[in-house]
Design brief:
mainly alpha; 10 helices
Amino acid sequence: MATTDMESLVRRDRRIVLTCLVGITVLAWIFLVDMAIDMGGDVSGSVGDGASLGGMFRGDAVAKPRAVTWGSVEFAIAFAMWAAMMMAMMLPTASPMVLMFATINRNQRREDDAIVPTGVFVAGYIAIWVTFALAATLLQWGFQSVGLISPMMGKANAVFGGLVLFAAGIYQWTPLKDACLRLCQTPLGFLMTRWRDGAVGAFRMGLSHGAFCVGCCWALMLLMFAGGVMNLFWMALLTVFMLAEKIVPPGPWLPRAAGTILIMWGGWVLGAAS
């Protein structure tokens, strides 16, 4: 196949993949906005009193929100919310890796090879984050059952919120964070060292990338418990930051800076609560 023909196919594949990623992400955000409106949230960036640095933990700093009992319907709704949140927040951050997979997949495919859709790779990635969504749902269930976060918007009391901020900041400085982030920052290196042929191989690579992505971002995702599970402003801010972590030149300066801010913020909140 001529080089110009191959380049044209690669560009076409990347356009299709990018369009699909954007479409899924937009649908997930629409679902979350609609859910936030139904729950009484403010889609302009403030959910209750929890969107700002100073206002996130107003009121009685140590008072526990009312504990609630969950049924199967409440669990299903919370899981759907977390699953949509994973699509809305994590697919944009995975786009460099997915586009690189589409490029390599096209370049390595011979004319007689069966087509392995890029969606198979994405499905593996999504499977990992849906599993994380299930774990987050169980955590929310537990936190609400003991009154650490509010029943509706999942907003934490000050002590619990401060601890979450502090712990997330500490994780930003750990070797595990660095190792997982390096693999997410180098899509070409990740795929060339872990390439597997066929649909099963593509799904396994998606699972692998998803696992490293969880290792990189799980603590940041749990910040939703500090800012409010349905805080759309908090979701958008974290999405932009996690994408920035993966596309800036490799190095620890950005996660370290964020970690320092989170540690100081968590310490401030805990100090105010005491």
